[in-house]
Amino acid sequence: VHPYVWKACAGTAAKIPAIGSRVYYFPQGHAEQSSCWPDFSAVLCRRSFVLCTVSAVRFLASPDTDEVFAQIALDPRFPPPPLVPVPVGTPDGVGGGGGSGGVVSFAKILTPSDANNGGGFSVPRFCADLIFPGLDFKAEPPVQTISVRDVHGTRWVFRHIYRGTPRRHLLTTGWSKFVNCKKLVAGDSVVFMKNDAGELFVGVRRTGRFCGSMDYVPYRPPAGAG
Amino acid sequence: VHPYVWKACAGTAAKIPAIGSRVYYFPQGHAEQSSCWPDFSAVLCRRSFVLCTVSAVRFLASPDTDEVFAQIALDPRFPPPPLVPVPVGTPDGVGGGGGSGGVVSFAKILTPSDANNGGGFSVPRFCADLIFPGLDFKAEPPVQTISVRDVHGTRWVFRHIYRGTPRRHLLTTGWSKFVNCKKLVAGDSVVFMKNDAGELFVGVRRTGRFCGSMDYVPYRPPAGAG
DNA sequence: TTGTCGGCCGATCGCCGACAA
DNA sequence: TTGTCGGCGATCGGCCGACAA
């Protein structure tokens, strides 16, 4: 998942440390949020926390739920080992309060009307102006087809129309398929994004009590970074 | 899964050895049909086959596909150990060419019309006479609701009607739901069964190249049969 | 006897403007 | 500006007898 898209999906409250920064790791806190008790036999430390260096960060998304999460590799060695080169294409500063990288985004909580099978999606005016391509307002009605990609790169097509009295922006054809495929319900959020090149992206955030497992999966460092 | 229902689903070509019978086990033949190479470190034998005694048989069905399969535990010791008591309710001789135990069954390969979403199921006359409860032919049309259980015990309800010119037996309401839930397509088969008590059962056989994994799962013998 | 087809009817889907918050 | 509603037309699911293999 591209870090900019990932960040827009996760929201501004999610703070991910930069590679090379120093953090404290609290094994017990980690364990309490896990679905099963992790194997701490390799952690030869009696203190309740460990000073670590962030050695790698992976931005990931669940294939099932589109839920975005990060996998953060920690190195407890002291003094910290020399920093390995950051792979090409991974901007530094992401998640550390850095800039948005030219990506503009807009999130909306789905109303019951948005999530109902029978309806479309009411596009807030600010979202349409900020994110979507401009409509031809001389047409009657102004209408276009927009193509957006989700965090997996899957492409979704929506009919975007400006109609009704008073006039408002709506997504109609294609929207209910998106809602059903993503299993969205009222209260969930969708995030529309546009990058520098004008490409559109869409992410989802869920309200449900669904919680990631935080289980350990071995990290395989990039080639040449051994 | 009840052995009688299992046998009817598997068809007459499936032969399962009785408990206590002597069979030859061919490790290589087993391995060639497995999805991964089994661990044969415990088989201390250089010959290509091992004379075994069938110590246990379990009749199982896949929760996903309803595919029935058997798990056969083999004991290579010689001379054969004393036979443990057969658990109550497991008839001997099942699968060895024995009787049908009062279960009558009828299998039909689904036609395109049977599997189409728009249609019902044409019940062959012999199947209706042999398996289904008798209709009240004085009614116009003769119709009833039948309730059948699949290999998991899940209950399915079908509307059974005798209509059309010429008259024929059909399953209508409830049938397409069954086809969709079981993911049946033309060419697959359904098996209707009736036991001594008049209870109805239904099984499915698939034509697809789907193949069970034949992987090893430890067998836990019934209590008291150690 | 039974597989397939077209007809037909009701349910659902989904687009629409009205209207009010 | 935008959330919800009722209307309504299009589509689809599914029950029917006709007919032929």
TrEMBL record, chains A, B:
<comment type="function">
    <text>Auxin response factors (ARFs) are transcriptional factors that bind specifically to the DNA sequence 5'-TGTCTC-3' found in the auxin-responsive promoter elements (AuxREs).</text>
</comment>
<protein>
    <recommendedName>
        <fullName>Auxin response factor</fullName>
    </recommendedName>
</protein>
<comment type="similarity">
    <text>Belongs to the ARF family.</text>
</comment>
<comment type="subunit">
    <text>Homodimers and heterodimers.</text>
</comment>
<feature type="domain" description="TF-B3">
    <location>
        <begin position="106"/>
        <end position="208"/>
    </location>
</feature>
